[in-house]
Each structure stands twice: as C-alpha cells, then as structure tokens.
Amino acid sequence: MRLLRTLRAAVAATVTAAAAVSLTAFGAGPAQAATPLPAHVFAPYFEAWTGDSPAALSAQSGAKHLTMAFLQTATSGSCTAYWNGDTGMPIAQSTFGADIKTIQGRGGDVIPSFGGYTADTTNTEIADSCTDVNQIAEVYKKVITTYDISRLDMDIEVDALDKTAGIDRRNKAIKLVQDWAAANGRKIEISYTLPTTTHGLAENGVALLRNAVSNGTRVDVVNLMTFDYYDNATHNMANDTETAAQGLYNTLAQLYPGKTPTQLWGMIGVTEMPGIDDFGAAETFTLANANQVYNWAVSKGINTLSFWALQRDRGNCGASSDSCSGIPGNQWDFSHVFAPFTSGTTTPTNDFSVQTTPASGTVAAGSSTTSTVSTAVTAGSAQTVNLTVSGAPAGVSASLSPTSVTAGGSSTLAITTTSAAVSGTYTLTVTGAGPSANHSATYTLTVTGGNGHQCTAPPWASGTVYTGGQQVSYQGHTWKAKWWTTGETPGTTGQWGVWQDLGAC
Prior knowledge:
3 domains, EC 3.2.1.14, Immunoglobulin-like, alpha/beta, ten-stranded mixed beta sheet, chitinase, CBM5/12, globular
C-alpha cells in the first residue's frame, strides 16, 4: 500500500531441512492459539503512525477487524522490525498491545502488515533488509506471539516486487513460521497484498506466488490493490475490481489446480481507496462503487474486503488526503457499507451516526453559540446513544442537552466563552456511545477578540516534521515532542504518546 501518507527456486528437501533447523531454534513456543479470522472479513488498513487509537476508531467506525500498517526495519541491512520503522515503536505490548487486546475482546482482531510503499522503495522491508531467513522468521513469530494474532499480511509492491532474493527469503521464512505454528497448534494465515492491473496481476506478482509454491509456502489470501492503476485512463473502479479479481482467479486456478472454484474465490481479497485515490480524480471510488463491490464480494464469496485507509473514511473536507476521501459524504460512510461483510451476510447489526449542524462557527470572546447534534439509525434498529463533548480550551465551556438520546433523536451543543478565552480555532469532538459502537462528529470553533494569554510556541501543523524537544501550541496548550513525529495531533496520542502536554498557554 502506498505509504505516501506521512508522507506506495528452492527444492523441497532443502526447505524441509531448513524447517527442521528453525523449529529447533524457535523451541516449543506457546501452545495457545489465537482465534482464526472469519471466512469473510472486512479489515480496512489503519495508519499506525497517526497517533490515533486503533481500538477507538474500530469502535467508532464499526470495523471490528483492522489491517495495521506497517512493520519495517529502521535502516536497510537491519533484521529488527518496528512499527513504521520508528525505533520508539517496537514490537511489544507497549506499542498497540492494549488496543489490540481491546479489539480482540470485542470479537475482532488485527492483521499486522509488513512492507508498504515506503519500506518497499527504501530496502527496509524486512526480507529485503535482512539476509538471514531464520531471523526474518523470528520477527514474524514475535509479532504473532506478542499480539496473539492469526494472520500476517505482506504488502509487497514497486521495487520489492522485483527483488527475487528478498522474495525467496520471505517465502522461506514464512514456511518456517507455518511449520512452527502447525507444530504448536496455531492457525496462522498469510496474505499477500499486491498491485494489480485491471485484468489481474502483472508478471512479477505472478512470479512471487510461483516462488511461494516452489518453496512449499501456503498463501491463504492474495489481496489486490484495486486502485492506483497508473495507466492514465478513466476508470469505473467497481467494474475494474471485478475484472482484476477475475484475472487473479484465473492465475490462482493455474497455480493451484487442485482447488475448487469456491476455494479459489476464498483466496481472494480486494482493497479499495475511498474517494479520490492518490493518482487523481480519474480513479475515484464512490459509495455507489462500494455498494456494487460489496454485493459482488458476497456473491463470489471472496475472503477479504479492505480499503486504504480507515482514517480517510470521511468526506466534505476539501481534498483527498490522509484524513479525507476528497468527495462529499459523512464519516464512516464506506465502513458502514463494507462492515456487514465480516458476518458473511447482508443482515446488518444495530448502528447509528452522529452529525453536528452547523459543523463550525465563529464567536466573539464573552459570547455563546449552539449547534444541533443529530443522530440517525444507519443499520438495524434504534438504540440508546450517550453523548459527551471534549476539546474545549480554557475560557470555553461546552455542554449537551440532553446527554442521552435514542438514535434518530437530537441534542443541543451549547458553547459559552469568557473574555479570558484565547483567540484561535479549536476542534470540539462530540462522541456518541452505543451498546455496539462509538461514533463521533466534530465542531470547529473560532474565538475572536479574546484577551487570554496567547501561546508563544508556533502552532502545530500536520505536515511538519518535529523532533524530540520541539514545542508547539495547539488548542490553547503548549506541547513538547518526545521524539520524531509528523501528522500526530497533540492531545490524541495518550499519556504514553509522542506529545507531552505542558499546560495551558
């Protein structure tokens, strides 16, 4: 997958011998096994470098399963993987462990993904960076046991697709892990996320799968990047998804002649990009496209529906970006279309939406304003929604009346400012908590004429790179970066996150 965001043959005897050596090196390992993923799963990509909580966005969006992007080495030549290649984000319970446990406790799970555009173009994809097959396998095993997960994803594209030595090492390492898992009663699935043409894999993608077959490596899912065709043509993205998947089906039928049509379709996944993708408007995936792809995926019985990325699933924010689809719409529109796929049925669960009207306003310090918070049933039947509001800076108070509604009802957001409020623009977040999920909406408040103390640190900017010790101002507070960061909003990374709150300005 394109991480432009922080910004895209051994013989069987040899394999068997290597597996025996590696199993001895691994030792027995823990016997418990993670819960296998459903046969049909919606698992959108989650941008792990943003500072967002995967558990919170999973609950808010209704996406019970997430594909976590990405794991890679910090430097070329290393055999140690980190989240986003950031040495401050090791494979450990301290990094996403609590979030992943929470998601699993709700009946969902995550799929850690290795690679991605940046890793694949900088030789920091683990199998390109590390030349020791056993060490690569140890990294895979560490992710599996640390987070108790049942699938790993390999996002291999651009340069990494043509590195035959890395492809062979990766497949050999996966085979070692599969043998270890089988010996310890674990169900481990492997998915390959690969770029595609409108009619299926290019030859280098086919060669990667051919190498897996020759190494005895089981590939459970081939996940097509059904966007970013880069052919300078205008696309119907839903139709092209279907033709690309049919081409993959034909390839898989040749590679796995013993599988039935149902089994072959059950090896296929597709990943879309909500709205305008990073090629441009000629490749725009609409909600109508999403509904067509959903119905097609159900009819074919494919394994995985996904999109890049969960943080993009919101509209009406100007242009396509890390945090916006670039087309009109509400937050979680695409998630709500795809989420029922996980159950393998079109029967929806109870769900709702939250919206503020108006969604922004300007207030002179000492004055007040209101906004209507509307809820609506988006699936199933109405449920009780408890409402809270956060994000008000010093000198501003925000309250809701009532604080609990039945989905379909509304509440009034009342905002009062004092003369001591600091002039500036602030984001208030209204969160609705229901029995099955949480959803939120934002209200952008601009305060003018305040006589409160002004922040002296430069305002935080999402596209700026900050290093440890640098200070910024955001929503009336001063924040200090603990380490390198970009795109992580102060106040959203938690107590152990990158930003330290130094208090109100």
